Amino acid sequence: MNETLPPCPECSSAYTYEMGALLICPECGHEWSLPTAEPMSTTEDGVIRDSVGNVLADGDTVTVVKSLKVKGSPTGIKAGTKVRNIRLVDGTDGHDIDCKIDGFGAMQLKSSVVRKA
After folding, report:
1. Looking at the DSSP assignment, which residues form a beta bridge with residue 38?
2. What's the N-to-C CA distance of the chain in angstroms?
3. Could you tell me which residues come within 8 angstroms of residue 23 by beta carbon, excluding any fewer than 6 positions away?
4. For the chain, does the N or the C end have fewer beta carbons within 10 angstroms?
5. Paired residues of 24 in beta bridges
6. Residues in contact with 78: Cβ distance below 8 Å, sequence separation at least 6, in sequence order
7. What is the pTM of this model?
């Protein structure tokens, strides 16, 4: 048991552990990320960063860190999906990555839900 990690918000288990940018509860299987004081996606110098703070650039390959719901799709995008050849854009509502995902087509993602591969 690690006293520096918070208990699970679903079942209050104290046995949470870290896996990359996520915290995981081994008892109920709930996954969540720690809230940060400031969003990791952009800084005052205009650099776009992923969920763990790595700087992103056009053409990078990223991995989705949490499952995402997609309107019109019964399955959505699963955690661990690799997205190749991203393009950084000044999108709307925090969506700052333009990409094509196999099986879904063109879409925009938030940099806070991806990790540089």
Report:
1. none
2. 29
3. 5, 6, 16, 17, 31, 32, 33, 34
4. N
5. 17, 31
6. 64, 67
7. 0.61
Q: Are 3 and 16 in contact (CB under 8 A)?
A: no
What are the distances in angstroms from CA 66 to CA 20, 80, 90, 109? 11, 7, 22, 12
The DSSP code for 8 is P
Burial class (CB in 10 A: 0-12, 13-18, 19+), 60: buried
Average pLDDT by stretches of 10, the chain with 117 residues = 71 83 83 59 69 91 91 87 92 88 89 91
Q: Provide the 3-class DSSP secondary structure of residue 30.
A: coil
